[in-house]
Amino acid sequence: MTPWPDDLADLTPTWLTEAINDGGLCEGIRDAEVTSVEVEPLGAGTAFFGDLARLTVTYSDSSCPAPQRLIAKVPTTDPGGRSVGQMLNAWWREAMFYARLAPLVDAPLAPCVFNGADLDNDRYLLILADLYPDTPGDQVVGATQGQAEAAVEALARFHAPWWGRPRSDEVAWVPGLDRPGTSDALQAAMMASFDRFVSRFGDTLPAEQLDWHRRFIPRLGQWRAGVAERPLTIAHADYRLENMLFSADGTVTVLDWQTAMYTGGPTDLSFFLATNLPIELRRAAETELVGLYVETLHRSGVDPSLTTTVREDYEHAHLWWMGMLGNNLSSIETPDERSAALFDAMLQRLYSAAGDADCGRFV
Q: pLDDT, tens digit, for every residue of 28-74?
């Protein structure tokens, strides 16, 4: 089909008609004819790896089954975010998720209308249905108790089908920490970025936890090997409020599958509870929410013998996220007050959670 434009503002009715009918790597919607499209930029300061826009579409036939409100996403134009996204193969992963993994997921997902991937030229475009009036969470404000409970239950239901099971051919493509050597490049990147991270954020973070962060980096391969010995699953690996939509009935739809990977399920739980909950709520509800996660795994068919280390693995994973955020946030710009507040909230909460869990015992 006709190549898509690099700038979402340049999506035209003619091109969108072709895209919806073709579908790219997903199933197309035949006989849809777009007569007009309005493009509204979205996600400033919250979408680290992508530029987003809402598309309001009019069709020649009002009975067309294609959604009238769509969300389009292309790789970010921010140089730091682009560099990190390329290192993580973020856009390829998301294209593969919607092409191969989404049909296997027993959880609410936004329907995919167009999934375009041009691997040779590192160009990608994803168009999903806009689930209005569902609303995204606000990570700067932090999760409410109800949002936290809904997100933890949804996370366990997503993890359960793959928990502790060998990879099948259907998911052989998913990157993962179960493969030796997969942490080598990340370790080098974390080491190279640590001083830059400290220069940028160190004055606001506890010195003791910064030292744990520093000492964890050379132990990354050892941590990876330990994770690989535990029950593994497919994880979201960016499980945060900005990537969730909450409906009036409590349903949680998870977006942004750019970092999907094989790892321990507690790594997702760590990221969500440690960086998305206000510190006092996390302290008050942490034990209950970790218990809810484990109970939901059991209700979803996971053998209790495979969940005995969840709490320890959850706490150990705080160090992984200190390393990952240290690497990623050291390079990504904060062009406005909200993005700066988001970075600050994530780091303050994570370092607090690590301190409360005495994560220094792992290093």
A: 998 899 999 999 998 665 555 778 899 999 999 989 999 999 999 99
Measuring CA to CA, which residue among 69, 72, 62 is closest to residue 131? 69
Interval 247-268 mean pLDDT: 94
Say whether 122 sits in a helix, a strand or coil.
Answer: coil
The candidate with the shortest Cα–Cα distance to 190, out of 328, 302, 91, is 328
Residue 57 phi, psi (nearest 5): -115, 140
Q: Could you write out the three-class secondary structure of 271-337?
A: HHHHHHCCHHHHHHHHHHHHHHHHHHHHHCCCCHHHCCCHHHHHHHHHHHHHHHHHHHHCCCCCCCH
- CA distances to 43, 97, 255, 308, 331 from 49, rounded to whole Å, are 11, 16, 13, 35, 12
Which residues contact residue 277 at a Cβ distance below 8 angstroms, ignoring those fewer than 6 apart?
142, 143, 148, 285, 349
Query: Under 8 Å CB-to-CB from 73, ≥6 apart: which residues?
Result: 47, 50, 51, 52, 53, 125, 126, 127, 128
Q: Are strands 233-235 and 112-118 parallel, antiparallel or unpaired?
A: unpaired
Q: Domains (ranges, CATH) in the chain?
A: 8-129 (3.30.200), 135-362 (3.90.1200)
What count of Cα atoms within 13 Å lies in the side-chain half-sphere of residue 206?
15
pLDDT at 3: 86
Give the number of other Cβ atoms within 10 Å of residue 90's Cβ.
26
Which pLDDT tens digit goes with each residue over 260-293?
999 999 999 999 999 999 999 999 999 999 999 9
Which amino acid appears at position 138 of this protein? Answer: D
User: Edge-to-edge strand order for the sheet containing 50-59?
Assistant: 34-42, 50-59, 69-75, 123-129, 112-118
Cβ-proximal residues to 31 (8 Å cutoff; 6+ apart), any chain: 21, 61, 64
The strand pairing partners of 51, in sequence order, are: 74
Helices 279-299 & 265-276 angle (0-180, nearest 10): 150
| Beta bridge pairs of residue 129 | 70
Answer for the pair 103, 27: CB distance below 8 angstroms, yes or no: no
Q: What percent of the chain has pLDDT over 70?
A: 98
* pLDDT for the residue numbered 79: 80
